[in-house]
Amino acid sequence: MADAIARIIELLPELNKAFFETLLMVGISLLVAIILGLPLGILLYVTDRGLFLENRFIKLLVGIIVNLIRSVPFIILLVFLLPFTDFLVHTTMGPLAASVSLSVAAIPFYARIVESSARDIDKGVIEAAIAAGASPWMIIKDIILPETKPGLISGLTITCISLIGYSAMAGTVGGGGIGDLAIRYGYYRYDDTVMIATVIVLIVLVQFIQYLGDFLAKAVNKR
């Protein structure tokens, strides 16, 4: 027990660095998911049949692209995007490089959650807004986004937790973060103490994010 504690103390600088690399990867990809995934999810919803911007072609095209990306296992997507990653950030190693593939995975994932949350809106409210002369932008801004706020936050929580798991996977191919630390020290050097420590860190991080997400979703829920 004393040896294990001494080993963890010895690795604290590395563990601290890996933890913040994971936060960097997840933070960047989560921001990209909000910036691109949110409007993409809204687009999937408002172009559906019977909605005010109904467009079968756009709905089909965007839906196919989203489903194609979501159907590819992350580790394969990570390798497939290496040339694009190298072009974008001029490296295929480290947390910044890993955040590229994480972002690509996060965008369609969150978009589908946004679309699903929007489907819970009473269509009568939207029809009433159209009858009152509201523009599409006003309906999105004043009805869809406020009504789906709890679902959007819950979806963001789910996306964030999934990205933590993906970031650990990215560490296996030099992406940095906690996964990289677990592979380099825990797996290759057969150091069970490091493996246990990294698992505990990931569990605590996921529990904190889940609690925070649930708290915020309840706080904005006015129903």
What is the topology?
Blueprint: H1 2-10, H2 12-46, H3 56-71, H4 74-80, H5 82-89, H6 95-118, H7 123-131, H8 136-147, H9 149-170, H10 177-187, H11 192-220
Helix pairs in contact: 2-3, 2-6, 2-9, 2-10, 3-6, 5-6, 6-9, 7-8, 9-10, 9-11, 10-11
Which class best fits the helix and strand makeup?
mainly alpha
Amount of helix: over 70%
Largest sheet geometry = none
- Which architecture per CATH? Orthogonal Bundle
Number of helices: 11
Number of strands: 0
> What's the overall geometry?
elongated
For this structure, what is the CATH class?
Answer: Mainly Alpha
Mean pLDDT: 87
Instruction: Bin the strand percentage.
Output: under 5%
Gap between N and C termini: 51 Å
Order of helices and strands: HHHHHHHHHHH
Which runs of at least 5 residues are low in confidence (pLDDT < 50)? none
Number of domains: 1
CATH-assigned fold name: MetI-like fold
Please name the fourth-level CATH homologous superfamily: MetI-like
Radius of gyration: 21 Å
Overview of the structural elements:
Keywords: Cell membrane, Membrane, Transmembrane, Transmembrane helix, Transport. It is found in: Cell membrane. Its main location: membrane. The chain starts with a helix and ends with a helix. Helix 5 (82-89) crosses helix 6 and helix 10 (177-187) runs antiparallel to helix 11. With 223 residues, the protein is mostly helical. The longest helix has 35 residues, at 12-46. The mean pLDDT is 87. It has one domain: MetI-like fold (Orthogonal Bundle). It has 11 helices and no strands.
